[in-house]
Amino acid sequence: MEKKPKRRTRERILETALRLFNEYGEPGVTTTSIADEMNISPGNLYYHYHSKDKIVEALFAVFRDEIENTLAAPESRPVHAEDAWLFLHLVFEAIYKYRFLYRDINELVSRHRMLETQFKRILAHKKRTAVAILEGLVRAGEMKASALDVEVLAVNMTVLATYWLSYEFARNPRAKEESRALARGAFHVISLAAPYLAPRERALFDELAQRYLS
Fold it and tell me: Does 179 have pLDDT greater than 90?
């Protein structure tokens, strides 16, 4: 059986840093603790990444590619109410995978000029995608909403999706973060649009909501 190639040190540093950042928060993790966790010297880590900021920026670049690809999906074809659930789940999966970015987002963007610029673009893309989905539902007769309704809903959905994990953490900082937080977040985001859904789609929402939260 052919052996898998050994992972490069740079990849292992990012994997370890992501796990520690997610578990303890980015401010509570040092490059020394990352090196200790990997059983390598701080000098070895420094050879690959000159500072913790460089590690954060590298992780953000990977996250940006993943979330941008996910957000682009609804633009490729018409989206129906059933698709909205799957799309939101995929968005929240990406958010959860890199949850340290969202839990500490205000501090991170204030310290990193690159993150500030790029995260603005991600937020704008989130809102554009929300508008595209909502307008598609209106065109398909699956939702009844004015242009202003769509604009307000898109902003509210973007805000809620972006800060949901911060809310969960503030609500119970000592709780073990779990995938159920994703389900609750997706449910509350789509609940914003529920009152505007046509009867069939609202019945579908009610049915899926029960399964999603159970």
Answer: no
Compute φ and ψ for 143, nearest 5 degrees. -155, 145
Cα atoms found within 13 Å of the Cα of residue 2, Cβ hemisphere only: 2
**163 pLDDT above the threshold of 50:** yes
- The residue to which tokens 């995608």 are assigned: 129
- Assigned token pair, 123: 């937020």
Q: Which residue has the tokens 């796990």?
A: 19
Q: Could you give the 3-state DSSP secondary structure of residue 160?
A: helix
Number of helices (H), then strands (E), in the chain: 11, 0
* Inter-CA distances, 120 with 51, 56, 80, 177, 197, Å: 24, 17, 27, 26, 30
Domains (range + CATH), the chain: 1-50 (1.10.10.60), 53-213 (1.10.357.10)
Q: Is 99 helix (H, G, I), strand (E, B) or coil?
A: helix
Strand partners, 143: 197
What whole-number distance in Å separates Cα of residue 214 and Cα of residue 209?
8
Across the range 99-121, mean pLDDT stands at 89
pLDDT of residue 2 exceeding 50, the answer is: no
Indicate whether 4 pLDDT > 50.
no
Q: Would you state the pLDDT for residue 55?
A: 96
- Looking at per-residue pLDDT, the higher value among 41 and 214 belongs to 41
Chain centroid to CA 156: 16
What CA–CA distances, in Å, run from 75 to 56, 97, 152? Answer: 29, 23, 20
What distance lies between CA 159 and its chain's CA centroid? 12
